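Methods — Computational structure assignment.
A single polypeptide chain was analysed. Its primary sequence is given first, followed by the predicted tertiary structure written as structure tokens.
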Amino acid sequence: QVQLVESGGGSVQAGGSLRLSCVASGVSYSSNCMGWFRQAPGKKREGVATIDSDGRTTYADSVKGRFNISKGDAKNTLYLQMDSLKPEDTDMYYCAAGQYACSLYAPGFEYWGQGTQVTVSS
């Protein structure tokens, strides 16, 4: 089994930065894709960024140029560097892993973390 645990969320003013981390544990899982998603109450889960086993990345248009997804030296660690944060970035952020081709489509992912809250104030 795979367990994903996010950390690094918090409250920041507009224009600030946060770095989210996700650590995987449990039975080894050869995921083709890992990603970050976000969701606010009453809204659907939205894809933010993905990275595949070859390091290829995909970003939502709303975060291009501001967010960067990466893997740590240890393959069990995933990061999301968020710069130039805006109030509309306020959401619960989730890391996810899946065995299918990477896309910003939540149902394509099999494993999910518990989420970490990001709040951006102006």
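Note: DSSP finds no helices and eleven strands in the chain.
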